[in-house]
Amino acid sequence: MTREAEAILGFWREAGVDALYEDAPVDRTLTQPKQEVRPIRPAQPLRPAAPTPGLRKESIDTVALSAEATALAAEAGDLEALKAIVANYAGCPLRFEGAARQSVFGRGNPKAEILIIGEAPGADEDAQGLPFVGRAGKLLDRMIASVGLSERVYITNTVYWRPPGNRTPSPQEQATCAPFLERTIAIMRPQILVCAGAASAKAILKRPEGILSLRGNWFEWTSQDGSLTLPVLPTLHPAFLLRQPQAKKKAWFDLLSLAERLDRTHHSALQTET
């Protein structure tokens, strides 16, 4: 594949296009045979759709689902208990739409100082039950190791099941899973959050800017109950770096900023203790 083609595919991926709807390309510039023109019938008044039998109201009520997830998450006293609760949770539609095998919770040091939050599991993650284990995950591991942080991170996603066709999870799907992510943060009490990619940054920071505008800048996240405030660093998703290798320089600067911020935070904590 030429570099120009890779750049074009990367552009459309960042724009949210990640699936093709036909098996073969169609040349739409060819002259099409004239179609029979039929008279347009007068529009008929719309009738309200009949309710689908057996469809629970809760299945489309994000607020109710979020409240249910919050109550379930509160029961977990550690990450293993929370992982089990997530595995049995049926409120997120992704569990039945995209995931082929299982939920994908997290991996890394459960007492880590850094919590890296990605977008959603992919095919490799769905198969293994662990986040960031494909090509993008291997790149992420190398990036973390390059600044000596391998033992100081825990990795998760904004949702715990693979979206159909590896599409970006919707804000509603992320909101349904948000109580579990917030409980993860409450249990771990990390010192820094890192948002890998646009979908994660928008879900955590509630900001409309694109990742190229957000990356490299420091923000703050506050828990729903206001008891915890943490610094947040958005950065480029490793999958984007695989498509756009020239952007690795920006990601490297982000990692240096992360390592420097963590060391400064650790140094301040030691001074406070003494």
Tell me what the structure shows.
It is a single chain. With 274 residues, the protein is an alpha/beta fold. It contains eleven helices and six strands. The chain has helices spanning 3-14, 62-74, 79-88, 94-97, 123-128, 135-146, 171-188, 198-205, 211-214, 238-243, 248-273; strands spanning 107-108, 114-118, 153-157, 192-196, 219-222, 229-235. The chain has a six-stranded mixed β-sheet. Strand 5 and strand 6 (229-235) form a beta hairpin. Helix 2 (62-74) packs parallel to helix 7. The model is unreliable at 42-59 (pLDDT under 50).
Straight-line N-to-C gap: 58 Å
Are there runs of 5+ residues with pLDDT below 50, and where?
A: 42-59
Assembly context of the chains: single chain
Mean pLDDT: 85
Strand fraction: 5-15%
The run of helices and strands is HHHHEEHHEHEHHEEHH
Main sheet record: 6 strands, mixed
- Write down the Rg: 22 Å
How much helix, percentage-wise, in residues? Answer: 40-55%
Helix/strand-derived category reads alpha/beta
Spatial strand sequence of the major β-sheet: 1-3-2-4-6-5
Counting DSSP E segments of at least 2 residues, the number of strands comes to 6
Continuous helix count: 11
Based on Cα principal axes, name the global outline: globular
